[in-house]
Amino acid sequence: MTKIILQLERATNNITFRQIAITMLLLKLIIISYFAYLLIGEVTNGTLSFDSTFFIFLAIGFFAQVVDGALGMAYGVSCTTLLMNFGIPASLASASVHTSEIFTTGISGLSHIKFNNIDKGLFFKIVITGTLGAVLGAYLISDYFDGNIIKPYISAYLILLGSYIIYKGIANKSTKNKTVKKAPLLALVGGFLDTIGGGGWGPIVTSNLLSQGKDPREAIGTVNTAEFFITYFATAIFVFFLGVKHWQIILGLIAGGALAAPIGAYAASRINKRVLFFMVGTLIIITSGYTLYKSVF
Question: Cα 138 to the chain's mean position, in Å?
Protein backbone atom coordinates (compact mmCIF):
# COMPACT_ATOMS: atom_id res chain seq x y z
CA MET A 1 0.00 0.00 0.00
CA THR A 2 2.85 2.39 0.85
CA LYS A 3 4.48 1.78 -2.54
CA ILE A 4 1.19 2.44 -4.33
CA ILE A 5 0.75 5.72 -2.45
CA LEU A 6 4.30 6.83 -3.29
CA GLN A 7 3.75 5.98 -6.97
CA LEU A 8 0.49 7.91 -6.91
CA GLU A 9 2.19 10.96 -5.40
CA ARG A 10 4.90 10.92 -8.08
CA ALA A 11 2.32 10.49 -10.86
CA THR A 12 0.22 13.42 -9.67
CA ASN A 13 2.97 15.89 -8.74
CA ASN A 14 2.79 17.66 -12.10
CA ILE A 15 -1.00 17.84 -12.25
CA THR A 16 -2.18 21.40 -11.68
CA PHE A 17 -5.36 22.78 -10.14
CA ARG A 18 -6.23 24.15 -13.57
CA GLN A 19 -6.14 20.63 -15.03
CA ILE A 20 -8.33 19.34 -12.21
CA ALA A 21 -10.83 22.14 -12.87
CA ILE A 22 -10.86 21.44 -16.63
CA THR A 23 -11.50 17.74 -15.98
CA MET A 24 -14.42 18.62 -13.72
CA LEU A 25 -15.89 20.94 -16.35
CA LEU A 26 -15.60 18.31 -19.09
CA LEU A 27 -17.28 15.66 -16.95
CA LYS A 28 -20.06 18.11 -16.09
CA LEU A 29 -20.57 18.90 -19.76
CA ILE A 30 -21.06 15.19 -20.49
CA ILE A 31 -23.66 14.71 -17.76
CA ILE A 32 -25.46 17.97 -18.63
CA SER A 33 -25.75 16.82 -22.26
CA TYR A 34 -27.13 13.46 -21.17
CA PHE A 35 -29.66 14.98 -18.76
CA ALA A 36 -30.72 17.51 -21.42
CA TYR A 37 -31.40 14.58 -23.74
CA LEU A 38 -33.53 12.87 -21.06
CA LEU A 39 -35.40 16.08 -20.25
CA ILE A 40 -36.21 16.71 -23.91
CA GLY A 41 -37.70 13.22 -24.02
CA GLU A 42 -39.79 13.94 -20.90
CA VAL A 43 -41.08 17.21 -22.37
CA THR A 44 -41.85 15.56 -25.72
CA ASN A 45 -43.80 12.79 -24.00
CA GLY A 46 -45.62 15.29 -21.77
CA THR A 47 -44.46 13.52 -18.59
CA LEU A 48 -42.51 16.43 -17.06
CA SER A 49 -44.55 18.51 -14.60
CA PHE A 50 -43.75 20.94 -11.79
CA ASP A 51 -45.57 22.01 -8.65
CA SER A 52 -44.62 23.46 -5.26
CA THR A 53 -42.35 20.46 -4.62
CA PHE A 54 -39.74 21.99 -6.92
CA PHE A 55 -39.50 25.18 -4.85
CA ILE A 56 -39.47 23.26 -1.55
CA PHE A 57 -36.43 21.30 -2.68
CA LEU A 58 -34.81 24.38 -4.20
CA ALA A 59 -34.85 25.93 -0.71
CA ILE A 60 -33.63 22.67 0.84
CA GLY A 61 -30.82 22.38 -1.69
CA PHE A 62 -29.75 25.98 -1.08
CA PHE A 63 -29.58 25.62 2.69
CA ALA A 64 -27.94 22.18 2.61
CA GLN A 65 -25.23 23.34 0.19
CA VAL A 66 -24.39 26.49 2.18
CA VAL A 67 -23.79 24.28 5.21
CA ASP A 68 -21.96 21.61 3.19
CA GLY A 69 -19.70 24.07 1.40
CA ALA A 70 -18.80 25.85 4.63
CA LEU A 71 -18.44 22.80 6.91
CA GLY A 72 -17.62 20.01 4.46
CA MET A 73 -20.65 17.85 5.23
CA ALA A 74 -24.42 17.46 5.68
CA TYR A 75 -25.76 17.89 2.13
CA GLY A 76 -26.28 14.19 1.48
CA VAL A 77 -27.35 13.33 5.02
CA SER A 78 -29.92 16.12 5.33
CA CYS A 79 -31.38 15.74 1.83
CA THR A 80 -31.56 11.94 1.96
CA THR A 81 -33.24 12.00 5.37
CA LEU A 82 -35.88 14.42 4.10
CA LEU A 83 -36.51 12.43 0.91
CA MET A 84 -37.05 9.26 2.92
CA ASN A 85 -39.50 11.16 5.13
CA PHE A 86 -41.40 11.92 1.91
CA GLY A 87 -41.76 8.15 1.43
CA ILE A 88 -39.05 7.69 -1.23
CA PRO A 89 -37.18 4.34 -0.93
CA ALA A 90 -33.58 4.49 0.33
CA SER A 91 -32.05 3.47 -3.01
CA LEU A 92 -33.99 6.08 -5.01
CA ALA A 93 -33.37 8.75 -2.34
CA SER A 94 -29.63 8.12 -2.50
CA ALA A 95 -29.73 8.10 -6.31
CA SER A 96 -31.62 11.43 -6.44
CA VAL A 97 -29.29 13.14 -3.99
CA HIS A 98 -26.14 11.88 -5.71
CA THR A 99 -27.48 12.98 -9.09
CA SER A 100 -28.02 16.52 -7.80
CA GLU A 101 -24.64 16.45 -6.02
CA ILE A 102 -22.82 16.15 -9.35
CA PHE A 103 -23.75 19.77 -10.01
CA THR A 104 -23.52 21.14 -6.46
CA THR A 105 -20.19 19.49 -5.64
CA GLY A 106 -18.83 20.49 -9.05
CA ILE A 107 -19.53 24.17 -8.44
CA SER A 108 -18.43 23.88 -4.81
CA GLY A 109 -15.18 22.17 -5.81
CA LEU A 110 -14.36 24.79 -8.43
CA SER A 111 -15.09 27.48 -5.85
CA HIS A 112 -12.76 25.85 -3.32
CA ILE A 113 -10.04 25.72 -5.98
CA LYS A 114 -10.56 29.43 -6.62
CA PHE A 115 -10.28 30.25 -2.90
CA ASN A 116 -7.18 28.01 -2.55
CA ASN A 117 -8.82 25.66 -0.04
CA ILE A 118 -7.26 22.48 -1.50
CA ASP A 119 -4.43 20.20 -0.40
CA LYS A 120 -3.48 18.61 -3.74
CA GLY A 121 -1.55 15.69 -2.23
CA LEU A 122 -4.44 14.76 0.05
CA PHE A 123 -6.92 15.20 -2.82
CA PHE A 124 -5.29 12.47 -4.89
CA LYS A 125 -4.97 10.20 -1.86
CA ILE A 126 -8.73 10.22 -1.25
CA VAL A 127 -10.35 10.72 -4.66
CA ILE A 128 -9.45 7.35 -6.25
CA THR A 129 -10.26 5.01 -3.35
CA GLY A 130 -13.25 7.17 -2.40
CA THR A 131 -14.66 6.74 -5.91
CA LEU A 132 -14.08 2.97 -5.82
CA GLY A 133 -15.90 2.72 -2.48
CA ALA A 134 -18.82 4.82 -3.72
CA VAL A 135 -19.20 2.79 -6.92
CA LEU A 136 -19.25 -0.47 -4.94
CA GLY A 137 -21.79 0.94 -2.49
CA ALA A 138 -24.02 2.25 -5.29
CA TYR A 139 -23.95 -1.16 -6.99
CA LEU A 140 -24.88 -3.03 -3.80
CA ILE A 141 -27.70 -0.70 -2.70
CA SER A 142 -29.14 -0.62 -6.23
CA ASP A 143 -29.53 -4.37 -6.45
CA TYR A 144 -28.73 -6.24 -3.23
CA PHE A 145 -28.40 -4.32 0.01
CA ASP A 146 -30.59 -2.34 2.42
CA GLY A 147 -28.51 0.65 3.52
CA ASN A 148 -30.81 1.28 6.50
CA ILE A 149 -29.34 -1.73 8.34
CA ILE A 150 -25.99 -0.10 9.11
CA LYS A 151 -27.26 3.47 9.59
CA PRO A 152 -27.64 3.24 13.41
CA TYR A 153 -24.05 2.02 13.83
CA ILE A 154 -22.63 4.74 11.59
CA SER A 155 -24.67 7.38 13.43
CA ALA A 156 -23.46 6.23 16.86
CA TYR A 157 -19.85 6.36 15.67
CA LEU A 158 -20.30 9.85 14.23
CA ILE A 159 -21.85 11.17 17.46
CA LEU A 160 -18.71 10.12 19.35
CA LEU A 161 -16.49 11.62 16.66
CA GLY A 162 -18.46 14.88 16.69
CA SER A 163 -18.06 15.12 20.46
CA TYR A 164 -14.29 14.71 20.11
CA ILE A 165 -14.12 17.45 17.48
CA ILE A 166 -16.04 19.85 19.74
CA TYR A 167 -13.61 19.02 22.54
CA LYS A 168 -10.69 19.95 20.26
CA GLY A 169 -12.37 23.24 19.40
CA ILE A 170 -13.10 24.14 23.04
CA ALA A 171 -9.64 23.09 24.19
CA ASN A 172 -8.26 25.48 21.55
CA LYS A 173 -4.98 23.63 21.36
CA SER A 174 -2.67 24.79 18.62
CA THR A 175 -2.90 22.19 15.87
CA LYS A 176 -0.33 21.95 13.13
CA ASN A 177 -1.47 21.00 9.64
CA LYS A 178 -0.46 17.36 10.07
CA THR A 179 0.01 14.64 7.48
CA VAL A 180 -3.10 12.48 7.49
CA LYS A 181 -2.64 8.77 8.18
CA LYS A 182 -4.41 6.06 6.16
CA ALA A 183 -6.24 8.63 4.00
CA PRO A 184 -6.90 6.20 1.09
CA LEU A 185 -8.49 3.62 3.41
CA LEU A 186 -10.54 6.32 5.12
CA ALA A 187 -11.80 7.52 1.72
CA LEU A 188 -12.65 3.97 0.62
CA VAL A 189 -14.83 3.46 3.71
CA GLY A 190 -16.32 6.96 3.45
CA GLY A 191 -17.25 6.54 -0.22
CA PHE A 192 -18.80 3.13 0.40
CA LEU A 193 -20.88 4.24 3.38
CA ASP A 194 -21.90 7.42 1.57
CA THR A 195 -23.83 5.56 -1.12
CA ILE A 196 -24.97 2.68 1.11
CA GLY A 197 -26.26 4.96 3.87
CA GLY A 198 -27.52 7.82 1.69
CA GLY A 199 -24.88 10.28 2.86
CA GLY A 200 -21.76 10.21 4.97
CA TRP A 201 -18.77 11.11 2.80
CA GLY A 202 -18.44 14.53 4.46
CA PRO A 203 -19.21 13.51 8.06
CA ILE A 204 -16.93 10.47 7.95
CA VAL A 205 -13.99 11.80 5.93
CA THR A 206 -13.98 15.46 7.01
CA SER A 207 -14.49 14.53 10.66
CA ASN A 208 -11.62 12.06 10.65
CA LEU A 209 -9.30 14.49 8.89
CA LEU A 210 -10.07 17.14 11.50
CA SER A 211 -9.62 14.67 14.36
CA GLN A 212 -6.13 13.92 13.01
CA GLY A 213 -5.20 17.62 13.11
CA LYS A 214 -5.74 18.59 9.47
CA ASP A 215 -6.31 22.30 8.84
CA PRO A 216 -10.14 22.76 8.71
CA ARG A 217 -10.13 24.99 5.62
CA GLU A 218 -8.04 22.54 3.59
CA ALA A 219 -9.87 19.48 4.94
CA ILE A 220 -13.26 20.91 3.95
CA GLY A 221 -12.14 22.20 0.55
CA THR A 222 -10.31 19.00 -0.38
CA VAL A 223 -13.15 16.70 0.70
CA ASN A 224 -15.74 18.82 -1.14
CA THR A 225 -13.71 18.82 -4.36
CA ALA A 226 -13.05 15.07 -4.23
CA GLU A 227 -16.76 14.52 -3.62
CA PHE A 228 -17.54 15.66 -7.16
CA PHE A 229 -15.75 12.64 -8.63
CA ILE A 230 -17.25 10.29 -6.03
CA THR A 231 -20.82 11.39 -6.72
CA TYR A 232 -20.23 11.49 -10.49
CA PHE A 233 -19.26 7.84 -10.85
CA ALA A 234 -21.69 6.64 -8.16
CA THR A 235 -24.49 8.37 -10.08
CA ALA A 236 -23.43 6.56 -13.26
CA ILE A 237 -24.10 3.27 -11.44
CA PHE A 238 -27.44 4.52 -10.08
CA VAL A 239 -28.56 5.70 -13.53
CA PHE A 240 -27.60 2.36 -15.09
CA PHE A 241 -29.57 0.28 -12.58
CA LEU A 242 -32.40 2.63 -11.53
CA GLY A 243 -32.72 5.27 -14.25
CA VAL A 244 -33.47 8.93 -13.45
CA LYS A 245 -36.67 9.57 -11.48
CA HIS A 246 -38.24 12.37 -9.41
CA TRP A 247 -37.10 15.08 -11.83
CA GLN A 248 -38.54 18.07 -10.01
CA ILE A 249 -36.88 17.00 -6.76
CA ILE A 250 -33.54 16.53 -8.51
CA LEU A 251 -33.80 19.82 -10.42
CA GLY A 252 -34.88 21.67 -7.27
CA LEU A 253 -31.87 20.36 -5.33
CA ILE A 254 -29.56 21.20 -8.25
CA ALA A 255 -30.86 24.76 -8.62
CA GLY A 256 -30.71 25.54 -4.90
CA GLY A 257 -27.31 23.90 -4.43
CA ALA A 258 -25.80 25.60 -7.48
CA LEU A 259 -26.84 29.01 -6.17
CA ALA A 260 -25.39 28.31 -2.72
CA ALA A 261 -22.12 26.52 -3.60
CA PRO A 262 -19.89 29.63 -4.00
CA ILE A 263 -21.29 31.07 -0.76
CA GLY A 264 -20.33 27.98 1.23
CA ALA A 265 -16.82 27.84 -0.27
CA TYR A 266 -16.25 31.52 0.50
CA ALA A 267 -17.46 31.00 4.08
CA ALA A 268 -15.03 28.08 4.56
CA SER A 269 -12.13 30.33 3.57
CA ARG A 270 -13.11 33.00 6.11
CA ILE A 271 -14.49 31.28 9.22
CA ASN A 272 -12.18 31.03 12.26
CA LYS A 273 -10.71 27.52 12.78
CA ARG A 274 -11.99 27.21 16.35
CA VAL A 275 -15.51 28.15 15.24
CA LEU A 276 -15.28 25.63 12.39
CA PHE A 277 -14.39 22.82 14.79
CA PHE A 278 -17.34 23.67 17.03
CA MET A 279 -19.81 24.04 14.16
CA VAL A 280 -18.71 20.81 12.45
CA GLY A 281 -18.90 18.82 15.68
CA THR A 282 -22.33 20.22 16.58
CA LEU A 283 -23.69 19.54 13.10
CA ILE A 284 -22.45 15.93 13.17
CA ILE A 285 -24.09 15.30 16.55
CA ILE A 286 -27.43 16.83 15.51
CA THR A 287 -27.74 15.08 12.13
CA SER A 288 -26.38 11.76 13.37
CA GLY A 289 -28.53 11.90 16.51
CA TYR A 290 -31.65 12.48 14.42
CA THR A 291 -30.73 9.65 12.04
CA LEU A 292 -30.11 7.32 14.99
CA TYR A 293 -33.46 8.27 16.54
CA LYS A 294 -35.33 7.64 13.28
CA SER A 295 -33.53 4.31 12.78
CA VAL A 296 -34.31 3.00 16.27
CA PHE A 297 -37.82 4.34 16.81
Answer: 14
Within a 10 A sphere around the Cβ of 39, how many other Cβ atoms?
14
Amino acid at 160: L
- Separation between Cα atoms, residue 198 and residue 207, nearest integer Å: 17
Would you write out the chain's pLDDT as a tens digit for each of its 297 residues?
556 656 666 667 778 889 999 999 999 999 889 989 988 988 888 887 778 888 988 988 888 778 777 776 667 777 776 776 677 776 777 778 888 888 878 888 898 898 888 999 899 999 999 999 999 988 888 777 666 676 787 778 778 877 877 877 777 655 555 667 889 999 999 999 888 766 678 778 888 888 888 888 888 899 989 999 999 999 888 888 878 877 888 888 888 888 887 887 777 777 776 777 787 778 778 877 887 887 777
pTM across the whole model: 0.78
| Domain extents in the chain | 16-44+51-296
